[in-house]
Amino acid sequence: MLNPLDIAEDEIIDQCKNGSLKYQEILYKHFYRYAMGISMRYSLDSDDALEVVNDAFIKVFNHIKGYNNDKPFKAWLRTIVVNTSIDRRRKELKHQLHIDIDHAVQVQSSAKAIENLHVQDIMKLMKELPPIQLTIFNMYEMDGYSHDEIASILNMPASSSRVYLSRAKEKLRSLIISETKNNVRTIG
C-alpha cells in the first residue's frame, strides 16, 4: 500500500497524467481540504461545496495532461475550483429574478466591530449574504477579479457588479455590528 506522505507531489501528478486511478485518489485526498476551503467561500452549504469540489476534480483529471509542471499545482487547482464555483453560481443565478440596480448607498462603519470576531464567525456571516452578493464579494475581495472581469464572467454590467459588492459590504457591516453587540451581551 502506498503511503501518500512518502510520494512527491510531482510524482503524483505525473502518475495522474498517465491515467493512474490510484494516484488520482491520492491527489484528491491530498488536496481535498485545500479545494474544500476555497469552495466553501462560494457555496451556500457544505453539500454544495462538496459538489463543486468533486466537479472541479473531475475537470482536473480530464485536463491534467495539459497542466504545466513548471507552474504551482495549487494555483492551477485553485483556478479550477473558483471557476467551477462561479459556473455553478452562474447557473443558479439564471433562475433567480434579476432586478436592475441603479445605485447603492455606501455606509461607513467602525473597523473596531470586527476585532471581536473570529474568522469562523465572519465566514458564517458571509453565508447570510444573498448568493449573487456572496459570489461577487468572493470574486472581487478574495480572488482579485476586477469588476470588468466579474461582469464578463457573470454576464452583467460592471456597474451591477459594483453595486452588488457595495450591498454585500453594507450587509456584512450590519451583520458584524449586530454579531458584535450580541457577543458583548453574552460576555457581559
Major sheet attributes: none
Please tell me how large the radius of gyration is: 19 Å
Strand content: under 5%
Coarse morphology: globular
Helix content: 55-70%
The average pLDDT value, as a whole number, equals 82
Task: Return the structural class.
Answer: mainly alpha
Give the number of DSSP strands: 0
Q: How far apart, in Å, are the first and last alpha carbons?
A: 55 Å
The sequence of SSEs as H and E is: HHHHHHHH
User: In terms of per-residue confidence, which ranges show pLDDT below 50 for 5 or more consecutive residues?
Assistant: 97-111
Helix segment tally:
8
Describe the secondary structure blueprint for this structure:
Layout: H1 9-17, H2 21-42, H3 46-63, H4 73-94, H5 119-126, H6 131-142, H7 147-154, H8 158-187
Helix pairs in contact: 1-2, 2-3, 2-4, 3-4, 4-6, 6-8, 7-8
Can you walk through the features of this model?
The protein has 188 residues and is mostly helical. The longest helix is centred in the C-terminal third of the chain and has 30 residues, at 158-187. Helix 2 (21-42) crosses helix 3 (46-63), helix 4 packs antiparallel against helix 6 (131-142) and helix 7 (147-154) crosses helix 8 (158-187). The N and C termini lie far apart (55 Å). 69% of the residues lie in helices and 0% in strands. It has helices at 9-17, 21-42, 46-63, 73-94, 119-126, 131-142, 147-154, 158-187.
Key words describing this protein structure:
188 residues, mainly alpha, 69% helix, globular
